[in-house]
Amino acid sequence: MAELRRTALYDLHLELCARMVPFAGWEMPVQFRLGVMKEHLHTRAAAGLFDVSHMGQVILRPRSGYMAEAAAALEALMPVDVLGLAEGRQRYGFFTNDDGGIIDDLMFARRADHFLLVVNAARREVDLALLKGALEDRCTVEEVPNRALLALQGPAAEAALTRIVPQVSAMRFMDAGVFHIPGADLWISRSGYTGEDGFEISVPEAEAVSFARRLLEMEEVEPIGLGARDSLRLEAGLCLYGNEIDEATSPVEAGLVWAIPKVRRRGGAREGGFPGAARILRELEEGPARRLVGLLPEGRAPMRAHTPLFASEEGGDAIGEVTSGAFGPSVERPVAMGYVTTGNDREGTAIFGEVRGRRLPARVARLPFFPHRYKR
Amino acid sequence: MAVSETKYTEEHEWLRPEDDGVVVVGITEYAAEQLGDIVYVELPEEGTTVTKGDEIVVIESVKAASDIVAPVDGEIVEVNEALADNPGLVNEDPLGDGWFFKIKPSDMSQLDEYMDEDAYKEMIS
């Protein structure tokens, strides 16, 4: 087995008594001293600092120097609006395959002369191969070396970060910019994966530990592990690659239609022109055969990923399965997401999840379970 | 039979014999710490007759589900109802308020094979 990679903050994690686990080829902290539940609640109450350096940072630069060329090239891989993205702004997108499945989901920011992409750790090699194969005639594709990636999330994130970078208070949700502090340039976007206001900060590896320490010394900020990152994103109704979305799920099934603008849909000025357009455009008009829904189990027993779902308490074939499920510390009850066949996806529909041989009741619920608190 | 000391299993259960021939069962601090925050505990029904090795308790932590097996043959005479509303008791007080069930063993000598406190500490060290 290949050696696990370590981030620039590895030694700091150990110093902070992290419990380290293998994750997507990296050795990452799953929890710190507080434990998953308190880390989750702390992030929603104050501010949590996450090491997300395992994610891939990729720069896409047009060979011609014209950003519109890079934007057009990127649009050919995703059913989203790249050409319309203004400099200094970031957007959510997903690479699709010829069957309309999702190769990866990502954030991309338009900067002066290039795009900065942030992709999932487990998919970085696949993404790099895709980008190089599809775009290298028009763009250079370069994985950013030697930069850590941190996320500072929660209602106190702005107050904390402004002590180091005062200008970030002027940013709004999905703004992205470069900020200089002594010894480092920081690439900051106002975004995250918790449903909270917050920032994602790319920092040179050599400066990462001292930057993290400055934040952790602040009263509001606690280190948070991958365990709470997962329960936070689940309460926020955000998809996790490999759980809710993969090469077999379409963005329409996954409820990501909000990211597909009119201009790329049927009748739009830049209709189609991305892999899997036939299926995705058809599903947009006719509806998909199954949909991702929120699920609220009625008891206290969590319904974990792969729990089979049924329309009735006895008999019948499965109508889908849970993709993510856990106890939601902020909503104080178990929550889950999963796919159900169309017709069983209306809010309030009673369904049953089979846990340890018994069918337990649940209801289809609106996502997110916990309201987003972005600063728009 | 004389009341004996608390015993420990390799599955990190503690078994505490009481005066009335009943044994209280819970999990150790080490196990509670390893499991992380516990969010749900499914207990057997009182009056159930169980066989050593039966999976009779399900513990769901923030991370995963795990089973607790019956450490001896016997009858479940009481379960800790407080865990239904407050499963976090297992983390807060695993050796006290976070107990799981009381079992009346059909053969008290089945306890003899389990570790004493020193042997258990040795195992987890």
TrEMBL record, chain A:
Residues 9-261 form the GCVT N-terminal domain. Substrate binds at residue 200. GO terms for cellular component: glycine cleavage complex. One of its GO terms (biological process) is methylation. Its EC number is 2.1.2.10. Keywords: Aminotransferase, Methyltransferase, Transferase. It comes from the Bacteria. SUPFAM superfamilies: Aminomethyltransferase beta-barrel domain (SSF101790), Folate-binding domain (SSF103025). It holds the Pfam family GCV_T_C. Residues 290-370 form the Aminomethyltransferase C-terminal domain. This is aminomethyltransferase.
Automatic annotation (TrEMBL), chain B:
Pfam families: GCV_H (PF01597). The keyword Kinase does not apply. The modification N6-lipoyllysine is found at residue 63. The keyword Repressor does not apply. CDD domains: GCS_H. Residues 22-104 form the Lipoyl-binding domain. GO terms for cellular component: cytosol; glycine cleavage complex. Signal peptide: none annotated. Its cofactor is (R)-lipoate. Keywords: Lipoyl. Coiled coil: none annotated. InterPro entries: 2-oxoA_DH_lipoyl-BS, Biotin_lipoyl, GCV_H, GCV_H/Fam206, GCV_H_sub, Single_hybrid_motif. One of its GO terms (biological process) is protein lipoylation. Binds 1 lipoyl cofactor covalently. Belongs to the GcvH family. NCBIfam families: gcvH, PRK01202.1. The glycine cleavage system catalyzes the degradation of glycine. The H protein shuttles the methylamine group of glycine from the P protein to the T protein. The glycine cleavage system is composed of four proteins: P, T, L and H. This is Glycine cleavage system H protein. It comes from Meinhardsimonia xiamenensis. The gene is gcvH.
